[in-house]
Design goal:
The chain has about 150 residues and is mainly alpha-helical. The chain has six helices and two strands, in the order αααααββα. The longest helix has 25 residues, at about 70-95. It is elongated. It has one domain.
């Protein structure tokens, strides 16, 4: 193959080697409004946002979205966001991951619910035999989620 001969740019290599390990941040926020160190601190916390989106997609099964109207899509996103908020609250309060919390909640077979207005306590029991033999168990099967 004929063409220009390859010429290695040593000046560019030297510049690249000087910049190794250096990270730059570009923002339109004035220095007097937010110091550079604070911007870097916020950027370093960005992984929390990325983790939240991964949680929405995987643990909360927010995707795919099969809605067609703007209102239905917005409602779906709102429900997913609220579930994320509640999940994060539970993680902070319990010190456990959302997946661990979810797995533990599947082990619950009875719940006592107290009506704050009347003081009455309602006991909800899950009949695991009935659930295992019903078609509702298929809703928990990951094959049916896609």
């Amino acid at each position: 193959m004929k063409g220009k001969p390859f010429i290695f740019d040593t000046a560019l290599q030297a510049k690249a080697e000087k910049l190794l390990g250096i990270k730059g941040y570009v923002t339109n926020i004035p220095e007097k409004e937010m110091p550079g160190a604070e911007i870097v601190a916020y950027y370093r916390d960005l992984w929390h946002v990325e983790q939240a989106f991964r949680m929405i997609k995987s643990d909360l099964k927010a995707r795919p979205i099969f809605h067609h109207t703007q209102e239905a899509i917005r409602s779906h996103i709102l429900v997913c966001f609220m579930a994320l908020m509640m999940g994060k609250y539970l993680e902070i309060k319990t010190g456990r991951s959302l997946r661990q919390i979810r797995d533990e909640l599947w082990q619950v077979h009875e719940a006592n619910i107290r009506d704050e207005l009347t003081g009455e306590v309602h006991i909800l029991r899950m009949d695991t035999h009935e659930l295992a033999n019903s078609e509702r168990i298929n809703l928990l099967n990951p094959e049916f989620l896609h």
